[in-house]
Amino acid sequence: MNIQQLIQQDLERLYAVKIPETQVQIQKTKKEFKGHLTLVVFPLLKLSKKNPEQTAQEIGEYLVQNQPSIAEFNVIKGFLNLTIAPAYWINVLNDINRAEHFGTKTPDENAPLVMIEYSSPNTNKPLHLGHIRNNLLGYSISEILKASGNRVFKTNIVNDRGIHICKSMLAWKQWGNGETPETSRKKGDHLIGDYYVKFDQEYKKELAELEAAGLTRKEAEERSSLMAEAREMLRKWEAGDLETVGLWETMNAWVYAGFDETYKALGVDFDKIYYESQTYLEGKEKVLEGLKNGIFYQKEDGSVWADLTADGLDEKLLLRADGTSVYMTQDIGTAKLRFDDYPIDKMVYVVGNEQNYHFQVLSLLLDKLGFAFGKGLVHFSYGMVELPEGKMKSREGTVVDADDLIAEMIRTAKETSKELGKLDDCTEEEADEIARTVGLGALKYFILKVDPRKNMVFNPKESIDFNGNTGPFIQYTYARIQSVLRRAKSTPQPPKGGVAQQDKPQSAKSPSGDLGVNEKEQNLIQILSEFPAIVQEAADTFSPAVIANYLYDLVKEYNQFYHDYSILKEENEQIRDFRLILSENVGRVIKTGFALLGINVPERM
After folding, report:
1. Which of 166, 194, 319, 340 has its CA 20 to 30 A from that of 105?
2. What angle do CA 53, 71, 514 make, to 5 degrees?
3. Is the Cα dihedral 244, 247, 253, 254 positive or negative?
4. SS3 at position 384
5. Distance of alpha carbon 253 from its chain centroid, rounded?
6. Distance between CA atoms of 19 and 36, rounded to whole angstroms?
7. Measuring CA to CA, which residue among 482, 509, 502 is closest to residue 605?
8. What are phi and psi of 538, to 5 degrees?
9. pLDDT tens, 53-72?
10. Distance in angstroms (rounded) separating the CA atoms of residues 122 and 191
11. What is the pTM of this model?
């Protein structure tokens, strides 16, 4: 039984009544007070028929007398602070050590199926820093939900059609001179991104010339031949024009190859990728069906709209006057296909908070179209990521490219590790692997430690630091623990009587309950014991930051313990074995927790 169940049983005996589990409210004792756990007594006042202080005193005295796990107590107003006996913590550590997958659950075939959509790139530009936050959040949330007992299906929707795609195609057609990834020695997504920027530059130049000729900005935009050509290209694509579709297929293939390289470097993957070019017609069909059934209406120019004013929103365009689709139409079709394909219990969209309104509308439209899953859609809305210099703009070519950032993080990690002497005993191959692990760990942790709903500033220099709340700090602690464990296995123990034992690996024995453990060791075990609840909280709140910051607290506590107490040089064999098991399980939780964040740990540094 855990401590809450033991206390609940004692309270039922004290007051001779069945007490609901929800009435036994236990939380971690605040650092300024003595104790491990705090019992909130206010829900128990009806049973005690006493004031809060008297109730806490009464319960405290009863627990100390009748519950071996409670060593002592103190009362602060309506709160009962309990100090847990060392023997209880020893038993907790042994339970943790015996658990094969401590902190995580293995979903069975009847577990809820959660589909999580993340990444959602456009094929007119490479992935950038904003995509990195999206991919890291989506992948981590998938792993966390899986660890909390759900079946998880990771999916991606590629925005491979639309006016923005046509802008890149038109620019390449006009100014590309047949350039390819091979001839330019560029990744395909980078090459196409360059032409997206080129279109914007030429479009602005054209507008400036038209305005100089006396037109207003609006008139210039309406008269733009470039934009007219892009719209015509989109119309031809939707009409199945062979030349247009052929160019689209060629250029998209370049981009997909580039995306795959970036996903692999970032360490994220998908169970299935959907393409808007394959889903928009499904959406168009559902919109026309809704028009026929009076759910939507058509304007004089032929465009189709949804009137959502009765729902507190506005009117929403679903099909343009020329019959082409908008994002909302595509999302309707994608949602329909997904629920046709899989028995999904919950659909989670990992999309930035600038799309909050879009998903409000999507949920309403799906519900109006008769889809049972409409109102149950979850938009996991996360904040934007910026650099210290400010916002990024794709069209102006001022974004931070994902590939460049990954390469820079790995390079900086190698330089920093070399300066600190952490690669001195490594081969060049080992040094490169450690640099990749540390560089990506720094990037991922820095992004994931922030509450996902908040906007954040990513500072590359701050992220690669072997001190403070960073990935490298936690990774280095893990490597230190592994070093201790390796040395423990290879070092013969000093024998009684001074006769040398044979040099063979030593295995730490499970500690017994009568072993005295100090306050720092008790605190470490208590933090370890919280890991399953932390994983569940992260799943309930869709927040990898809960796990990231828990791991930082665990590592801080371990490093203080490591600084204050000897492990390998401890003369008492029982205490030495206990500390080795404690260290091993701290390392195990770090590795498991980091895996839920999509971060690897180095075995040596």
Report:
1. 340
2. 170
3. negative
4. coil
5. 29
6. 23
7. 482
8. -60, -40
9. 999 999 999 999 999 999 99
10. 14
11. 0.88
